[in-house]
């Protein structure tokens, strides 16, 4: 008997349930797992991951994919979209010899532990042999993954941002480097450095958490469909659209980190809470790419959370929530302090203006590595050289340099550009929204509902039914264009730095 | 090829991992699940339960059971113990026709919802038809389950307390009824009613939680192997011995409930944290019965938490933790108030002296139902009559009467006696321990470690490797004997009520 769409979607639902299960296991591991439960948790996690991978790459799935690829007329529109995604996933995971894939998994598991040790020792050379093995495995796997991409690195980019290429990214990176240089030069030569002393005033963690809770609720995050917990690193995990959880951390002397971190995660959560229910239990109930996912968290964090109009409305609430702590600071002074920009060695501590330069460094190193222009051994020197060139600072050791991110040790090569793409997508969405809504007035008045509704209907509702390229074009009328990001940053920072002609 | 113990235990480990998974899902459902996640959670829970049941009752398990039953020499001691438990579970779940079992599952799912409605309406007649169906299903299933038990109700008792029978319980219940009547008569005629007004003083919930956390830590609950969360009803869930979580609830005007509730759950947690690691990933990593599990929570709650010596040591800490709230109450006055006994309509609100009478009522009704002496329709009248006879009070409506517990609607018939057995086991353990350790001195001095260590080595470490009957005999030198419970209650309450000759 011929396979039916109904049976195909039943298998897809099982995979989705196992994904939900893994999301819960992962969330709990970061929020509630007691120390001595770790080894048991590893067994559980491995067992459920194994079940999930077996279904995603097994013979039953292969039968469905082969049949529906040959008989596309047997699927309706939703089935067709699901097929596109599961087929891509199948191809990614299926062709590689199982023994090689297992060996690779072992290397990234070891590498992440060695990464911790290397950080303590401040010594990249400890990690180097592991990273060399990871790169060698990736180079071995790329031919299995390649589907006509122009370069090997394009293959890796495509795994996190489908359709993204070096050909698109190279000019974008060049434009950003020049544009950011220009803005920073303007601020340094014609701007007024904001007062920032009050930014480290002690705000109790419970107060910070309550501010985050209130703010993200007003920004549309629905606590009937999620919750807010504490973890070492903030993250969002979507079990399903009725349970899109966020976590946050609080630093008593760093309310800005906590506040923007919470608003950021709530952007991810908002996305997942508002996907079309038709897509439940399929891979369509997700963002179409990592970059697009980040576009919604960064829209929250930067284009709302660092928007002058937003703080005009919010600052009174913030003052009230923090008692008498900020009564001596008026709103313009507060906002300018909030927007101070300064190059940092650590990517995750960067302000939005300098952040892209951290990504440029990583992008250029990854690209050189996979397109044969450098070796793992040469990376630390290149890292230092590029940080000096682009940001004007040099790490004193590997821990605050090339060892700062776990991504490479975890095998996530080609991932970093999605953080930057998220910013660019967000800026372009913000521009398009501004053509249809009085965004500044809405932000200043605290009436965020029309903004949330716009994002929901134009972006969130669609889930992963469109590719990122199709989505950005459909929503904004043009392909990805870094100009909107540069324009917003120029205007915003020049205003915060009181740049005059 | 003949099945090997290694492969058998690998299957058992898979079942154990799925059980761990279900425990996590259940814990999270009661602590962190947002409202709109409920329907998705139901699907996940059903899927994982289905996987687990399939392994527990599938053909692979049958092959192992058949082979090792015929070739017991092929298993070592641990394998033999595991076989005993999985075979019992297999027999319980396998023989019943699948369609009947599914219909039964549907009835108990419906019945639990109807139970909620019936409670709101204060009307047992709404639940009656569902309970009749549940009883009919049980009567239909009992022949499949029966393994030589003397009465049908014995079959149900055995499912929660292996080996327990009406023949053992009838004289125990009679002894307890008479003994409790005697103690209550003594207190009423020759005792002094304690002052209790201070028992409802407002203690902030966070303070209560901190007191619970400190107290259970001193009583040996290990937060490296568990955690404490809030939920509507307190419970313990053991994912594994490295992750035995407890929850608690807090009532600002009922610190006693919160404190004893937390200590109770920590007793369950303590048990599970201290089972022999050899039993990991097998059903041996659990208590041998529900009653034995309760023996350890009730040991904590009653024989420590209501022990005069314990409060001699703890009251100063309690006073300090609650600020100036109890400075006017001295320790003897506090302890006497803590021990006030009064019949209640609600089982879960009962003090330990009257608690067994609640179980006697339920035991007598269940026994009559299954041994053909009454019908579901007659239960409410019998309930009222027995409450009046044993406790001297009559519920004004079904909600504070026969509808107070969800157990019957959930198909848990034969379960209630385990709560009472837990008390009796605990008293007998306490007596045995007192022969070997200066228990009162240790409690008064706050040096709880020897008590914890005794429980660990005599009871917890053994997991489910012995039957409850073997365990109680091995630890105390004799079979279950309600005399120890009656002796302790007599002495303790007469002292608290200042009974003189």
Automatic annotation (TrEMBL), chains A, B:
<feature type="binding site">
    <location>
        <position position="264"/>
    </location>
    <ligand>
        <name>Zn(2+)</name>
    </ligand>
</feature>
<feature type="binding site">
    <location>
        <position position="294"/>
    </location>
    <ligand>
        <name>Zn(2+)</name>
    </ligand>
</feature>
<keyword id="KW-0479">Metal-binding</keyword>
<comment type="function">
    <text>Broad specificity carboxypetidase that releases amino acids sequentially from the C-terminus, including neutral, aromatic, polar and basic residues.</text>
</comment>
<dbReference type="GO" id="GO:0004181">
    <property type="term" value="F:metallocarboxypeptidase activity"/>
</dbReference>
<dbReference type="GO" id="GO:0006508">
    <property type="term" value="P:proteolysis"/>
</dbReference>
<keyword id="KW-0645">Protease</keyword>
<comment type="similarity">
    <text>Belongs to the peptidase M32 family.</text>
</comment>
<protein>
    <recommendedName>
        <fullName>Metal-dependent carboxypeptidase</fullName>
        <ecNumber>3.4.17.19</ecNumber>
    </recommendedName>
</protein>
<keyword id="KW-0482">Metalloprotease</keyword>
<keyword id="KW-0862">Zinc</keyword>
<feature type="active site" description="Proton donor/acceptor">
    <location>
        <position position="265"/>
    </location>
</feature>
<keyword id="KW-0378">Hydrolase</keyword>
<dbReference type="Pfam" id="PF02074">
    <property type="entry name" value="Peptidase_M32"/>
</dbReference>
<dbReference type="InterPro" id="IPR001333">
    <property type="entry name" value="Peptidase_M32_Taq"/>
</dbReference>
<feature type="binding site">
    <location>
        <position position="268"/>
    </location>
    <ligand>
        <name>Zn(2+)</name>
    </ligand>
</feature>
<keyword id="KW-0121">Carboxypeptidase</keyword>
<dbReference type="GO" id="GO:0046872">
    <property type="term" value="F:metal ion binding"/>
</dbReference>
């Amino acid at each position: 008997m011929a396979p039916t769409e109904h049976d195909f979607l039943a298998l897809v639902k099982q995979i989705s349930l196992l994904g939900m299960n893994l999301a819960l296991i992962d969330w709990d591991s970061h929020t509630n797992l007691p120390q001595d439960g770790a080894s048991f948790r590893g067994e559980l996690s491995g067992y459920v991951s194994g079940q999930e991978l077996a279904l995603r790459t097994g013979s039953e799935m292969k039968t469905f994919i082969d049949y529906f690829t040959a008989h596309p007329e047997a699927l309706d529109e939703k089935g067709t979209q699901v097929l596109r995604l599961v087929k891509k996933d199948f191809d990614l995971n299926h062709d590689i010899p199982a023994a090689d894939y297992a060996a690779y998994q072992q290397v990234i598991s070891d590498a992440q532990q060695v990464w911790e040790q290397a950080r303590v020792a401040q010594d990249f050379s400890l990690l180097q042999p592991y990273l060399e093995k990871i790169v060698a495995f990736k180079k071995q796997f790329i031919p299995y993954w390649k589907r006509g991409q122009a370069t090997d690195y394009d293959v890796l980019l495509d795994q996190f941002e489908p359709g993204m290429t070096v050909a698109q990214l190279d000019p974008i990176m060049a434009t950003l480097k020049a544009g950011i240089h220009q803005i920073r030069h303007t601020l340094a030569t014609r701007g007024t450095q904001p007062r920032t002393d009050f930014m480290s005033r002690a705000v109790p963690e419970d107060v910070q958490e309550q501010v985050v809770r209130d703010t993200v609720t007003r920004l549309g995050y629905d606590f009937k469909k999620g919750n807010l917990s504490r973890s070492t690193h903030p993250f969002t995990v979507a079990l399903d659209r009725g349970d899109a959880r966020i976590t946050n951390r609080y630093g008593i002397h760093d309310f800005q980190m906590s506040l923007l971190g919470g608003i950021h995660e709530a952007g991810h959560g908002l996305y997942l809470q508002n996907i079309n229910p038709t897509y439940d239990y399929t891979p369509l109930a997700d963002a179409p790419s990592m970059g697009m996912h980040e576009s919604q968290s960064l829209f929250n964090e930067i284009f709302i959370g660092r928007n002058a109009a937003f703080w005009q409305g919010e600052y009174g609430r913030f003052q009230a929530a923090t008692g008498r702590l900020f009564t001596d600071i008026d709103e313009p002074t507060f906002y300018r302090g909030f927007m101070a920009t300064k190059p940092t060695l650590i990517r995750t501590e960067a302000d939005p203006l300098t952040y892209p330069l951290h990504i440029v460094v990583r992008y250029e190193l990854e690209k050189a590595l996979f397109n044969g222009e450098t070796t793992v051994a040469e990376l630390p020197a290149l890292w230092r050289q590029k940080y000096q060139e682009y940001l004007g600072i040099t790490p004193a050791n590997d821990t605050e340099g090339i060892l700062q991110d776990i991504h490479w040790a975890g095998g996530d090569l080609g991932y970093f550009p999605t953080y930057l793409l998220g910013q660019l997508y967000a800026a372009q969405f913000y521009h398009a929204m501004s053509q249809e809504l009085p965004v500044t007035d809405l932000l200043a008045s605290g009436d965020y509902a029309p903004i949330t509704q716009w994002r929901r209907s134009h972006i969130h509702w669609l889930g992963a039914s469109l590719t990122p390229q199709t989505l950005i074009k459909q929503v904004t009328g043009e392909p990805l264009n870094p100009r909107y990001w540069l324009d917003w940053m120029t205007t915003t920072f020049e205003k915060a730095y009181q740049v005059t002609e």
